[in-house]
Amino acid sequence: MSDQRDQWTERDMTEEGVTAAGHARDSDSREALMERWLLEMVREQRRSRRWKIFFRLLFWGFWIVVVAAVAFMVTSDRESLAGNRVGVVRIEGVIDSRSPASAERVIRGLDNAWQGSDTAVVLQIDSPGGSPVQSQRIYDEIRRLRSSGGKPIIAVIEDIGASGAYYIASAADEIYAAPASLVGSIGVVYSGFGLEGAIEKLGVERRVFTAGDNKDMLDPFQPVSEEQRRFWQHVLDQTHDQFINAVKEGRGDRLSDDPSLFSGLVWTGEEAVDKGLTDGLKSVDDIARDMTGSADTTDYTQSGDPLEQISRHFGRVAAQYLGIDLQAGESPVRLR
């Protein structure tokens, strides 16, 4: 009986081993099938992803080409249209290195208008004047462009074209204004305060250390000697002479012989025609219609970076709050 049980046990164990081996083979086969299936799925997904990427690139590439073609046609039409229009550059507000009417911005606008317009360049002026240096730079650029020929540069004065603004206008081929415009003010000014008596009454001691006898000449808390006064008047007179010579060079024999012409007085646009300061009464629209038959113009004014304008505004507000003079490093002489 014992031998028989041993045989049965051995046989059962053998059958169980065969069964286990079979199960193992089946498990390996299923794992292999599962692995192959997963690999095939991954390959299919990759193929599908590649086709999706391809069609997306094709789709967006198509629209990029369409948009670029339309933009090119619009730009070409605009440039063609701009070439047939009068190019306008606006000079508004005080002429200053930090203002929208700085020489850098105006000259950049002038050059763009000169290249972009085939008809004429118009300076649309509405300014009381400002820095003589900035005005001289714009004046010289206008004269340079005029010397190359090809089209006229015309100045049109809106509400006011005085002092440094008229300095610029005098470089143009022609100047026009409205009947009620203010034109002229060919003069130079420096203004300040003498506060030395005020600080004495307040018991304030002013402490200034200089190397150079006249370094503090324009300090409002220091008295001005007669020698310093004469010297400063010489600077103003010399600047005035430069202004007068520039106007005479620009206007030529169109100027009248009125002795008050260079006295700093200002006249209406109507009076300015009689004095030879302007050539007539016209607006920008009038000039555009005369030249092209349409009042449409192309504006080449350089407006500057909006962020720069915002930061400049906040800088001015902060400076006013702190009592800081932002113009401390600029020339105190003004054409106005």
TrEMBL record:
Pfam family, one: Peptidase_S49
Stored InterPro entries: ClpP/crotonase-like_dom_sf (IPR029045), Pept_S49_SppA (IPR004635), Peptidase_S49 (IPR002142), S49_SppA_C (IPR047272)
Domain Peptidase S49: 149-293
Record key words, sorted: Hydrolase, Membrane, Protease, Serine protease, Transmembrane, Transmembrane helix
MF-aspect GO terms: serine-type peptidase activity
Organism superkingdom: Bacteria
One GO-annotated biological process of the protein: proteolysis
Chain intervals with Basic and acidic residues compositional bias: 1-14
Keyword Coiled coil in record: no
SUPFAM superfamilies: ClpP/crotonase
Transmembrane segments: 53-74
Region (Disordered): 1-27
Family, per entry: Belongs to the peptidase S49 family.
Name of this protein: Protease-4
